[in-house]
């Protein structure tokens, strides 16, 4: 039976502070319970990093689909012959059954003809996946 298990690892290097800003050598020494030692030396090479860029002004050209979902409104609800999804930005919408079957496609801010739909509950899917509900009577 040997006493080689459960030793300690000691790391030393020639730099006294971090972060390391230039090439440096790190030496790892392992000593087991029996006093056997093993040493490994590594040279760490630091490469120059490009400087951080200056912040630029950002101009918002449109709202994201997530923003649209927060402001989208379905009316009339319940509906009879038509339904409209009003949104600050025109975007495609899909009318789905509760089972997820695609029934109609249209865009926001236009009347969607609902005459062909049976009475019941339907889902309107926005481009970001958000779902709005409406009732056809």
Written description of the protein model:
The chain has 137 residues and is mainly beta. The protein folds into 2 domains: 8-44, no CATH class; 65-136, Sandwich (Immunoglobulin-like), CATH 2.60.40. Helices cover 5% and strands 41% of the residues. The protein has one helix at 65-71; strands at 8-13, 24-31, 37-44, 73-75, 82-86, 92-96, 102-107, 111-113, 120-125, 131-136. The strands form 3 sheets. A 4-stranded antiparallel sheet has the order 7-6-9-10, with no helix packed on it. Strand 9 (120-125) and strand 10 (131-136) form a beta hairpin. The chain starts with 7 loop residues before the first strand and ends with a strand.
Descriptive tags:
single chain; 137 residues; mainly beta; Immunoglobulin-like; 2 domains; 4-stranded antiparallel beta sheet; 3-stranded antiparallel beta sheet; 1 helix; 10 strands
Quick overview of this protein structure:
With 137 residues, the chain is mostly beta strands. The chain is 5% helix and 41% strand. It is built from 1 helix and 10 strands.
How many helices in DSSP terms? 1
* Known CATH architecture of the largest domain: Sandwich
N-to-C span: 85 Å
At the fold tier of CATH, the topology name of the largest domain is: Immunoglobulin-like
- Poorly predicted runs: 62-69
C-alpha-based Rg, rounded: 33 Å
- Return the structural class: mainly beta
CATH C-level of the largest domain: Mainly Beta
- Binned, the helix content reads under 10%
Question: Largest sheet, if any?
Answer: 4 strands, antiparallel
Widest sheet, order of strands: 7-6-9-10
Q: Let me know the average pLDDT.
A: 76
Shape: elongated
Q: How many strand units?
A: 10
Approximately what portion of the residues adopt beta-strand conformation? 35-45%
User: What is the total domain count?
Assistant: 2
């Amino acid at each position: 039976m040997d006493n080689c298990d459960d030793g300690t690892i000691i790391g030393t290097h020639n730099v006294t502070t971090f972060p390391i800003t230039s090439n440096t050598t790190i030496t790892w020494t392992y000593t087991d319970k029996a006093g056997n030692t093993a040493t490994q030396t590594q040279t760490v090479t630091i490469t120059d990093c490009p400087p951080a860029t200056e912040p630029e002004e950002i101009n918002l050209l449109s709202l994201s689909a997530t923003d649209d979902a927060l402001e989208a409104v379905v009316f009339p609800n319940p509906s009879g012959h038509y339904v409209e999804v009003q949104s600050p930005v025109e975007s495609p919408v899909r009318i789905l059954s509760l089972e997820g079957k695609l029934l109609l496609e249209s865009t926001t801010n236009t009347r969607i003809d609902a005459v062909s739909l049976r009475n019941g509950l339907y889902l309107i899917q926005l481009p970001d996946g958000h779902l709005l509900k409406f009732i056809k009577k």
